[in-house]
Amino acid sequence: MTVFIASLFLPKTIHFTLPGTPPPGAAAEKKQPGKPAPAEKQTSLFQAPNITPPITPVDDKTRDHLFTNEDGLRVQIPQVEPAADGFRAPADRSSPTWGGRPDQPMSRANSPPPPSLIEKSRLLQQKAKELGRQGVTQPRSLTRSDSHDRVFANANWKVVNADQGNGGLRNAAEAAARECKLGDYMWVGTLGMPTDALQGTQQLQDISDRLYTEHDMLTVLCSDKDFDGHYSHFCKQILWPVFHYQIPDNPKSKAYEDHSWKYYVNVNQAFADKIIKNWKRGDVIWVHDYHLLLVPGMIRRKLPDAKIGFFLHVAFPSSEVFRCLAVRKQLLEGMVGANLIGFQIHEYTRHFLQTCSRLLSAEATPDGLQLEDRFVDVINMPIGIDPVSLNQHRQEVEVKKWLDIMRERYAGKKLIVARDKLDHVRGVRQKLLSYELFLNANPEWRNNTVLIQVALSTSEKSELDATVSDIVTRVNSSWANLAYQPVVYLKQDIDYAQYLALLSIADALMITSQREGMNLTSHEFLYCQDGKFSEKKHGSLILSEFTGTSSLFGGNELSVNPWDYRACANAIKKALEMGDEEKEQRWTKLYEAVNHHTGSHWFTEFMSRLDIVYDEQHRRDQTSVPRLSMHSLMQQYNRTERRLFILDFEGTLVSWGPVNKIIPVSPQRTLDVLNDLLLDERNTIYVMSGRRPEELDRLFRRVPNLGLIAENGCFLKDCGSTTWTEMADSDQIRSWKESVKPILNYYLERTPGAELEDRRCSLIFHYKSAEDYEAAQRQATDCASHINDACEEQRVHAIPLDGCVLVEPIDWTKTTAAQKIFADLRANMAPDEKHTSPVDFLMVIGDGREDEKVFKWANTLGEDGTVKEVVTVSLGNRNTEATATLAQGVSGVLMALQKLASIA
Ligand SMILES: O=P(O)(O)OC[C@H]1O[C@H](O[C@H]2O[C@H](CO)[C@@H](O)[C@H](O)[C@H]2O)[C@H](O)[C@@H](O)[C@@H]1O
Q: According to its record, what are the GO cellular component terms (predicted)?
């Protein structure tokens, strides 16, 4: 059995050594014409003249790119050279711009260059034109050449750790494997670099083969155009902002445009195809994150029995935001192809369930989603870090070196640190503005506080970069002097040793994300502050309340709303002025929370939950549930003396009729079968229905001695009785109806042709006869979710059904009625019989959603030995709890009951 872990980027990528280029690192020592010497590239952290920082690995990025155009427009992305072995990156690593490395091929995707580049190019072209008239060569356009392809196709290459992708996931998988909790596994992902240049070459085949045989990785290949459209456009410009609440109301949002949708589909299809091709029965597929939302559905269509998990690492927004996406239904349908869907925290799970019940008309339960024919389990399970490997790296010499440097450089200063991606959702701008406010308001801290902000590149094209630089300049020009700089702003990543040193020496970490799925940097910070390998700091964590992590920390962090600059400024002050005792208390609680939720725990828990829910769902699959055996049924019937039948009405004893139409009479055959069965005094029969008491009275007036359950369990009429017992609390019903009716009326007014049915204990919004059925369906799902949001505390829920929305109480159901019947039968037993069960044969037959819970209750009575013979029969085509199925519908039921009745 193999676990396929599908994530957009493989943990490995390829670096090429191009002919005529010095090996990586060599260029670092040489000053190149027109370029700053490597040492000059070091940013302001180490400007003190007496400090020589250790030489950090310098990537060959500082060299001229072999294939840049003569116009000099080179894409230079500062990157940290990935290590050749062992993962050495923060859990929340960054994903630098795809296709921007000089030691990897350039992309053939014709994505438009950013406006700034176009403008620059235009000016250069213009200038070149003028020069051209004087005989100077004109610049070539921004395209790769064939020679570029040839050089890469023949260059030497090596496999290195990728510096993009989800570090938290990789660390978690590594930790689980190290602890022997994960057997064979195989990563499935892209190479994280353009591959058109290598298309069809032996080299690309060799690369895929090497990754497969030596690293257990399946390479997904897609065209540069598909990848660029998928990642840089659909993922980064549509999904990422919307999932982080940058709603399309914003005029800059691209959420309405779906020109890149087809690329998203293509890349997802390439993943699905790769997995399908390699899948063997018994394998497990775990798909990760918002890049691959369609993959579970695509696989499910081809492999109906596959065990598929899906985990969303980023936030899932409120349904109000999600529904703005043009392709919202397709995305959800893709996700629900999984058997188990996981989110970081409860809030995202709730949003997802609400969104599905709204947009897919699926029934949301506390455990997941009941679709037409399947159940999908939905859970929240926060990811964590890998403390073991973190601690190993903390002990490295490099970390110690950086700690010494920083201790000396920042002696006597309080350090607030941060490392964030420079995109809007990370809230770097808000952080700097709050810090500025803090310095303005607290002169006593001006000379002795430093904010070190590491800002990572992002594919987001925005003016944020300039805005942030302006704020940094403003703060520094306001309060800096020869010996002091209030903000140290590094617009590049730092290597892992510096990162760990930074987290260890900090007095506070400040995270001001506007939204974030989790935020593992704060977990790593708490670990690095424990004093094990450097001084004990127990520094404060200033953490946005909009991160997933904040919901794990129970208020022991300094929780902030990043939009409230004043509160953030106060939090900084509080962090710096907090007494040691309080710091320690808070840190201890936070540390415990981090320890409790490790990456390895997350990984193995998800895997075992997937096993459990898969078995459970499979057990309930119609194809796994045996057909009702008449032979065994008759034997069970024959050997018992006290028999209880609980039979659903519509769809079971009579053909299904629309709920808003009355059924004039019960068919004679149904009445005959019930009467025949009741001739045997050992039989007790109850019919259960959603219909009102008076309707059932009329329908069954010719079956004396029949017990009835009306309005799905709110009313009960015992066998032989003439009166109904109201099970539900009428005051409670009255009260929720008062709240729900105005909501229903609001939607009714907007849905011509719809009508409202007011039952005793339930309300039904019917729209089968609406003038515009599709529009009515949308109103109905909105209406259901509105009621579920607004009336949760009143113990009522709205369920979207075929052509109607049923609003009914949560506390009285067919199951509670069945339990009452059973309890009453026991209560009526003779005192000397009370130690036995009131029935020795229990048969439940039904076809609907609400019958499933009655099956479950009955099965439990059989399993725990309370009732000797239990038979539960489902007629629907949904996954079922029943122990048997009957394909012949109503006539099959009547035939089976008739057979029993005929046994003397
Ligand atoms: O930028 P991308 O390549 O699109 O990847 C998205 C982000 O993925 C990782 O972060 C997400 O997962 C983390 C672990 O579960 C979670 O802590 C974080 O909140 C999520 O956003 C990665 O760490 C980020 O750098 C990527 O931007």
A: alpha,alpha-trehalose-phosphate synthase complex (UDP-forming); cytosol
Which pLDDT value is given to residue 658? 57
Tell me which residue of 231, 318, 590, 560 sits closest to 427, measured CA to CA.
Answer: 560
How many CA within 13 A on the CB side of residue 89? 28
Whole-prediction pTM: 0.79
Neighbours of 887 (CB within 10 A): 10
Decide: 166 in ligand 1 pocket, CB within 6 A.
Answer: yes
DSSP 842-897: EEEEE-SHHHHHHHHHHHHHHHTTSSSEEEEEE-SSS--S-SEE-TTHHHHHHHHH
Segment 420-463, tens digit of pLDDT: 999 899 999 999 999 999 999 999 999 999 999 999 877 666 78
In the chain, the N- to C-terminal Cα span, in Å, equals: 54
How close is the Cα of 89 to the center of ligand 1, in Å? Answer: 13
Asked if residues 192 and 13 have their Cβ atoms less than 8 Å apart, the reply is yes
Please state whether 34 falls in left (phi above 0), alpha (psi between -120 and 50) or beta: left
User: What percent of the chain is modeled with pLDDT above 70?
Assistant: 85
Scanning 423-551, the segments in alpha helix (DSSP H) are 428-441, 464-479, 496-505, 520-528
* More confidently predicted of 586 and 151: 586
Residue nearest ligand 1's atom 12 by CA: 313
Alpha-carbon gap, residue 334 to 264, rounded angstroms: 12
Q: 313 C-alpha vs ligand 1 centroid, how far in Å?
A: 7
Give the DSSP per-residue string, 522-585: HHHHHHHTSSSSS-----EEEEETTBTGGGGSTT-SEEE-TT-HHHHHHHHHHHHH--HHHHHH
ipTM value > 0.90 = yes
Ligand 1, atom 9, lies closest to the CA of: 166
Which residue's alpha carbon is at the smallest distance from atom 7 of ligand 1?
A: 166
What would the mean pLDDT of 351-380 be, rounded to a whole number?
88
Q: Which domains are assigned to the chain?
A: 387-597 (3.40.50.2000), 630-727+812-901 (3.40.50.1000), 732-809 (3.30.70.1020)
Q: Separation of 459 CA from ligand 1 center, angstroms? A: 13
Q: In terms of Cα–Cα distance, which of 529, 497, 508 is closest to 53?
A: 497
Q: Assign 119 a pLDDT band (cuts: 50, 70, 90).
A: low
Using a 6 Å cutoff on CB, does residue 517 contact ligand 1? yes
pLDDT 10s digits, 871-896:
999 997 778 999 999 988 898 999 99
Q: Could you tell me the pLDDT band of residue 359, with boundaries at 50, 70 and 90?
A: confident
Which numbered atom of ligand 1 lies nearest the CA of 90? 23
Ligand 1 centroid to residue 12 C-alpha, Å: 17
For 820-874, what is each residue's pLDDT tens digit? 999 999 999 988 887 889 999 999 999 988 899 999 999 999 999 999 999 999 9
- Going by alpha carbons, the residue nearest to atom 15 of ligand 1 is 313
Cβ of 345 below 6 Å from ligand 1: no
Nearest-5° Cα angle at 884, 843 to 857: 50
List the residue whose alpha carbon is closest to atom 1 of ligand 1: 95
CA of 790 to the centre of ligand 1 (A): 33
Centroid of ligand 1 to alpha carbon of 167 (angstroms): 8
